[in-house]
UniProtKB/TrEMBL annotation:
Single Gene Ontology MF annotation: GTP binding
InterPro entries linked: NOG1_Rossman_fold_dom (IPR010674), P-loop_NTPase (IPR027417)
Lineage: Eukaryota, Amoebozoa, Evosea, Eumycetozoa, Dictyostelia
UniProt protein name: Nucleolar GTP-binding protein 1 Rossman-fold domain-containing protein
Stretches assigned to the Nucleolar GTP-binding protein 1 Rossman-fold domain: 74-131
Length: 208
């Protein structure tokens, strides 16, 4: 099967890499896909698309590049509708060293601004570049912002539930980081599939 698959195939398990420029998305993309990447036109911009193979399983991975690296206006939100409909897990990268040129507050603000686009999608927050700054070295005010990402969230029905967000400290330069991340990602999709199956069974029972 070609690495590039039509984005219209909404059921394909997809990992979306999101974050500001220079937070480590491209490096992570290369490491996850072994640099086996193609480019797809999306509206007026481009997506980098590859695939991850792990223990006999495969999923699509998309580096959103400059599409989701800024706070969106309503017109942009509408144009990104296709991405929001994918069977996806969101991988949001935060450069805790702030060497990317954006503060932790700016990075968490970006996540909150796009979070409403991906309600009910699993969210993994990568605390990247821990080789430059460890979580213990992050100022307390910034760490409170990061921890707030795990708080309860309001869904489209106005109900509050556990956000399901996972915080994952890592570095592309630390041995085993990539394999550990793959394990978490594939486990997340596996749990998601179980939840969807349970929901389908409940819906059928309600019909009868």
């Amino acid at each position: 099967m070609d690495i590039i698959q039509s984005l219209n195939n909404l059921k394909t398990p997809t990992l979306l890499l999101i974050g500001y420029p220079n937070v480590g998305k491209s490096t992570l993309m290369n490491n996850l896909t072994l640099a086996n990447i193609e480019v797809e036109k999306f509206a007026t911009k481009f997506l980098f698309v590859g695939q991850i193979n792990f223990k006999g399983k495969t999923l699509r991975v998309i580096d959103t590049q400059s599409i989701l690296d800024h706070q969106l206006d309503e017109i942009e939100i509408q144009s990104i509708n296709t991405l929001t409909q994918l069977n996806s897990c969101i991988l949001f990268l935060i450069d805790i060293s702030e060497n990317c040129g954006h503060t932790i507050k700016q990075q968490t603000d970006l996540l909150f601004s796009i979070k409403k686009l991906f309600l009910n999608k699993p969210l993994l927050v990568i605390l990247n570049k821990i080789d430059l700054k460890t979580p213990n070295d992050v100022p307390i005010d910034d760490w409170i912002l990061i921890e707030s990402l795990e708080d309860f969230e309001e869904d489209s029905n106005g109900d509050f539930s556990d956000s399901g967000t996972q915080l994952i400290p890592m570095s592309n330069l630390i041995e085993n980081s990539i394999e550990n991340l793959k394990e978490i990602v594939f486990s997340t999709f596996k749990e998601r599939k179980k939840e969807n199956l349970c929901d389908e069974i409940k819906d059928k029972l309600l019909i009868f």
